[in-house]
Structure formats: structure tokens, C-alpha cells
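Review the following:
>
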Amino acid sequence: MAKKIMAQVKLQCPAGQANPAPPVGPALGQHGVNIMDFCKQFNAKTQKEAGMITPVIITIYQDRSFSFVLKTPPAAVLLKKAAKIEKGSGVPNKQKVGKVTRAQVEEIAKIKLPDLNTDDLQSAIRTVEGTARNMGIEVIG
């Protein structure tokens, strides 16, 4: 028989650097999950992408056990890395803060494709371009 699900928790943690401090500790502690066990498993699975923000969906079961699914890094994080900027623009329509090429946008779209609600690469590219526009990043070439 399948385990009964008690809760689902969505977090964004730096890959390979999860620790019991907030946000991980309080989110899992209120459900009675072994926090250090999660941190060790998460860090082991993500250590090759160290430093990247990695979304994770943790399913907590009635017997206080858990399983988790890793997602791809947010498009905004990948765009900031590609454009080599610290943060997006406060007024994206007027103030541009960086530039990315079409090739970089296509690479990001390929990375994000499994987590997007489309199977078409062109739709994924348009989604990433929209995120870039909203951040004040210009897409060139």
C-alpha cells in the first residue's frame, strides 16, 4: 500500500549547501522530518552544481519519512549568470542592465524545458525571452 502523504513543501536552496538554518529547518521541522537527513541527501545529489539555486519539492509522508524531487534552476538565475549581472533592473522598460545572445537564450531554454509546461523548444525560448525582458535584459542577435 502507498504511504499516506501528509504535506508537500517547496523550497529553493543553494545546491550542495543546504543546512538546518532557515528556510530549510523551520519548513521541515514543523512536519517532524529529520532535517539533517534531508540536508545530507540534498547536498549529495546537488554537489556537482554547487552554488546554483535549486528548487526542490519535498513530499512528507504520515510516518515522517520524505522523498524529494529536484527541479531545474529558475530562468532568472540562469539569465543573470549568462548576462554576468548581480540583479535585474528595477524599471525593465526604461533601464536595461545586461545583454544575452539568442544562442544563450536557447541554451537556457533547453535546460528549463523539462520543467516548463511545453514540449516545443520555440515556445520555451519565447518564455525565457519574456523573463529576460521582465528583468531588463536585452536579447540580441
